[in-house]
Amino acid sequence: ETGVTQSPTHLIKTRGQQVTLRCSSQSGHNTVSWYQQALGQGPQFIFQYYREEENGRGNFPPRFSGLQFPNYSSELNVNALELDDSALYLCASSSEGSSTDTQYFGPGTRLTVL
Amino acid sequence: AQSVAQPEDQVNVAEGNPLTVKCTYSVSGNPYLFWYVQYPNRGLQFLLKYITGDNLVKGSYGFEAEFNKSQTSFHLKKPSALVSDSALYFCAAVLNTNAGKSTFGDGTTLTVKP
Q1: CA B42, CA B21: separation in Å to the nearest integer?
Q2: Which residues on chain A place their C-beta less than 8 Å from a C-beta of chain B?
Q3: Is pLDDT at A3 greater than 60 in this prediction?
Q4: How do B3-5 and A104-105 pair as beta strands?
Q5: Which residue, among B80, B40, B74, has the nearest Cα to B56 in the 3D structure?
Q6: What's the pLDDT band for B100 if we cut at 50, 70, 90?
Q7: Nearest by CB to A97, which of B43, B100, B107?
Q8: In this predicted model, what pLDDT tens digit does every residue of A37-71 receive, in sequence order?
């Protein structure tokens, strides 16, 4: 069984740039959730994708967008980067888009915006 | 709006002593509750969850948690702490009507001293 993987591990961008983060879900899982974890805080829910459709969104602006592919891997895109976007971005996969699902997290992508 | 509070930023215990990491929640409705642990430079790892039924939930690595509806709490406990339990612990809540939107607390750093 393959766990959740994320790429890249670290990324440095400048304000105004765009970034794409990638996540491969655990084998057998069709749901991917993305979270932003700022330093010293808990993860903040960005959105969830279930079978290639958005299945819920947190309080993030439209410049945060995502995709889920037929193999259930996912991308998080952030446009017009701001300094406050600097954070650890976590991806989590689960077996069905249900509230009771256990989520399995990847190691995260550390984004630094200068 | 739903929220999860972890009132202690830091908990220190001696190895072999019992430990408690506190969590309270504020949601309208019936939440599902989760505990995760995060080690340095790693993603979150699932420990246990409360969905329904017995208020005492047993999870990984000897951890357990007690759901208390009247006090809206879900405290994490372990009878005998190990040095290797030292990590950052997160409590999370999900509403049954809002699949995917997990709300996390800001975390509690547990330090177990030999």
Answers
A1: 20
A2: 4, 31, 33, 35, 40-45, 47-48, 50, 55-56, 58, 90, 92, 97-100, 102-108
A3: yes
A4: unpaired
A5: B74
A6: low
A7: B100
A8: 999 899 999 999 999 999 889 999 999 999 999 99
